[in-house]
Amino acid sequence: MPRPCLRFLGALSGMACTLLLATTATAEPMYPRPDPDPFYAAPADLAAHRPGDVLDVRVLPPLAVFPGATIRLVEFRSADSRGAPIAATTTIATPAGHQPGAPLLSYQHFINSLGTSCAVSHRLYDADLNLSTIMPALSMLLQRGWSVALPDHLGPQFALGAGRLGGQITLDGVRAVKQLPELAVADSPAVLAGYSGGGLATAWAAALQPSYAPELRLAGAAIGGAPMNLVSMARGLGHNPHPAFGLAMAAAIGLEREYPDRVPISSNLNQRGLAFRDAIANSCTNDILAIGAGGSAHEFATSASVFDQPDAWAVVAENSVELYGGVPEVPIFEWHSPTDPLIPVDAINNTNRRWCASGVRLQTLEVPAFEHLSAAVIGAPEMLLWLEGRVRGEPAPAAC
């Protein structure tokens, strides 16, 4: 029995594992199962709408983590990486006794998933432990009168790794909620924040805002633990077994979904690779990590040539903030652990230096954390203080 099959299909019997290898799907890109809730489906007249236009609104059940808040799911028009129209969603919590014009935060949570069931708008009601790292901070802001939006920034195809897409969806989500009179945030000072994969979407939103949404006035953006260079991150994984290999494979699948003609991952997978892809194609973060732990790219590729495809690497570069020429026009707070083992810290430092040299008002914070996720929690209090200063209109500090 092949070892990778046993590893990621350990819950199945040996016979079932062998059967899956024998009947694996074709080498065409594998997209997620459509969300069974028709609310998420794109309307027939999608192309008639502009980016940020509201398509639909639904009031959701109350959330214990946001006591007293009204929860709404907003569907809006956004654009994919080619500029084609897509439908996207954001969940917004409005505090009890909300005052018109009170601050608005769009928080991009790290989704790091491939399945539609992994949308933040779903996981909020599933007691997702990954969300618990930020919920106390968001709840505190709601108690202070802020509105908090949580976009599903991977888009309808759950294109993990497509950072530019996440930035566009984030900006269009802010545009959308500002259009809804019942939310009373049209004149609110708006800020962005996110950590890890959510930090990637936040960084892209801040960098794209001058060209993609020039009319959208933002007071600042806080970026934590973001993979600023996907090229160096991918090459840093190497070809040896890695505990986070599942996320790397998931990002490759996500980029293939967004760029099927440029990132031909599936057609370069062997039978074990296709079975691995199928096993994670509709999975959420923790399952992807568990299924892929200790995997390596060479186990699943048909040949070494898959690692030398210029157009695919160009897509990875196009989704790397460090390599993007544009810079934010809003103040930036950036925090990370200098010993983070999962992301290339040099890419963060290089991006910070370039933004500083371009005149961005940037404050940085290195937190004493030895791994990736704890840095999110350790840096959160300083991040919240910084956000509060921006919505009060205080001059943004600059560390460069």
UniProtKB/TrEMBL annotation:
**Keywords, comma-separated and alphabetical:** Signal
Q: Which residues form the signal peptide?
A: 1-27
Which is an annotated Pfam family here? Answer: LIP
Q: Which InterPro entries match?
A: AB_hydrolase_fold, Lipase_secreted
User: Domain of life here?
Assistant: Bacteria
What are the recorded GO MF terms, alphabetically? triacylglycerol lipase activity
GO BP of this protein:
lipid catabolic process
Q: What is this protein called?
A: Lipase
